[in-house]
């Protein structure tokens, strides 16, 4: 009789161990930081939650729409000119999503004119402190700053534009607003 009780206890312990072992291993792997989660976005998420309204900035768009914003540096050199061209090309490359996105130039000083496809927004002091010159931002239709891209001095701007385009397409595909 004792051998059948012992055998039953061993089976019970084996069953408990069979189901508990993977949970214990998973907890150990996660708590020790041995696992890195996968990230699909290529830009940096703007944290904490920030909107244009919180910064006291009025959106330049009459209708709600996504913005592909470029913070214009004080002196627009060749990298700046290339970035402006790539923003226009990225806007064209959006294809069926093109009507949902408006390329916007954010500037802290008065500017003469840009091409008709580019909307210009004068930044206030709070927004100027939040963003950096030369930075690209994706802004949702509700005015939330979603993602930012800050190019390095000698970074390949074509690759950066492709990254922005990939993230923007994902956002537009999953978005129910704008």
Describe the structure.
The chain folds into 2 domains: 1-38; 44-174, Glutaredoxin. Helices cover 40% and strands 16% of the residues. A hairpin with a 5-residue loop joins strand 5 and strand 6. By secondary structure, the chain is of the alpha/beta class. It has helices at residues 2-32, 78-93, 125-130, 157-174, and strands spanning 44-45, 66-71, 101-107, 119-122, 136-139, 145-149. Helix 2 (78-93) runs parallel beside helix 4. The chain contains 4 helices and 6 strands; from the N terminus they run H-E-E-H-E-E-H-E-E-H. The chain starts with a helix and ends with a helix. The protein has a 6-stranded mixed beta sheet, with helices on one face. It comes from Vibrio alfacsensis. This is Cytochrome oxidase biogenesis cluster protein.
CATH topology of the largest domain: Glutaredoxin
Order of neighbouring strands in the sheet with most strands: 1-6-5-2-3-4
Element order, helices and strands?
HEEHEEHEEH
CATH superfamily descriptor of the largest domain: Glutaredoxin
Secondary structure tally: strands: 6
Shape annotation: elongated
| pLDDT < 50 stretches | none
